[in-house]
Amino acid sequence: MYEELLKQIDANKLPQHVAIIMDGNGRWAEERRLPRTFGHRVGVASVKAVIKVCLELRIKYLTLYAFSTENWARPKNEIDALFKLLQEFLRKERKRLQKEEIKLNVIGRWRELPAKVVKSITSVVEETRNNSKLILNIALNYGGRQEIIDAINKGIENGEKDFSIETLQKYLYTSGIPEPDLLIRTSGECRISNFLLWQIAYTELYFTKVYWPEFREEEFLKALIAYQRRERRFGKI
Ligand code: FPP
Question: Distance from the CA of 16 to the center of ligand 1, in angstroms?
Answer without folding.
Answer: 24
